[in-house]
Design goal:
Layout lengths: L2 E5 L25 H10 L4 E7 L10 H8 L3 E8 L6 H10 L3 E5 L5 H8 L3 H17 L6 E8 L7 H9 L5 E6 L14 H6 L9 H10 L4 E2 L13 H4 L2 E4 L4 E3 L8 E5 L2 E5 L5 E2 L5 H17 L5 H4 L33
Parallel strand pairs: 1-2, 1-8, 2-3, 3-4, 4-5, 5-6, 6-7
Antiparallel strand pairs: 8-9, 9-12, 10-11
Amino acid sequence: MQELYLEVTTRCNLACRTCVRNSWQEPLGDMDQGTFALLLRSLPQTLGKVQIAGLGEPLCHPDLISMIQQLKTKANEVELITNGLLLDQQMARSFLKVGLDRLILSIDGAEKETYRQIRGGSLAKLLGSLEGLSELKKSRQCSHPKIGCELVAMKDNIEEIPALIELVKRRGVEFLIVTNVLPYTDDMKGQILYGEAFLRGLPSRTDPGAPWERIRQKMGDMPASLPAITWEQSSRYCRFARRRALAVSFRGEAAPCYPLLHSYPCHVFDREKSIHKHILGDIHQESLAAIWQAYQPLRARLDAFAFPDCPTCSGCDMVEANLEDCWGNSPACGDCLWAAGIIQCP
């Protein structure tokens, strides 16, 4: 095990249109001190990276700073993904003090109204928080945390992304991650910018790659990761398995990846799919080392990505859920959008 994806809470201060919370019925909660202490004792002596994110806003957790400080004793790098609206100067100073390595802000629009419609928050407040952190780093001559921006691309904001890049570059953002949207509700299905149905719906002279080329030009020499817009069977691989990662929920349940930590409905291309969580074990019942060891046969299959090409076939009703595929795999990952690079996690 080299990486840990840690969900410290499923609570959030926003109600984004893009969020799984719009279709998800699980109770919300925080990782308690006992579960975190147990997790910390179970971790390998040295991890490559811990990413604090998941389906909640980490800054909602009252013990976040203490958690980061303790995780720094176990990991070479600790990374945090946040919507940034709770990032005040006290929090920013704490991040510098405990040595947070990377901070990734989720920003989905360059115009205040676009951001409000997608996120339901204040873009001005978020940009102010970003400026405050950048100025604090400069005043203290700190190189960390490295500041990145992650954005969810969709029809409502794709034209604003070049302007957004300019906004965040001027405020100290050092790298960019762009992901496509995964629709959890019917009203978001028309927002996708990928797949055969999207490409067929374009006017005959429209180049689907044109917005991405403008984004590349605007990035200049900024390190960036852009998503795929077409399904390519031969290029699929499990990012989580290859990174030798586990994901752990606020309850202490371990899964192969973030997408399998919880159960929820979503839309994969033009069809609805029920995702059932795939829990490998619970740290309250067995050690993380034992969970990792039992996971190895599945991880080997994930690493080889020995799964059918479900989006190209779609010839059976097994694709309606991820419980089993026609090759006998469970979970069924044959249409995983993360494996195709269409959806991205840092």
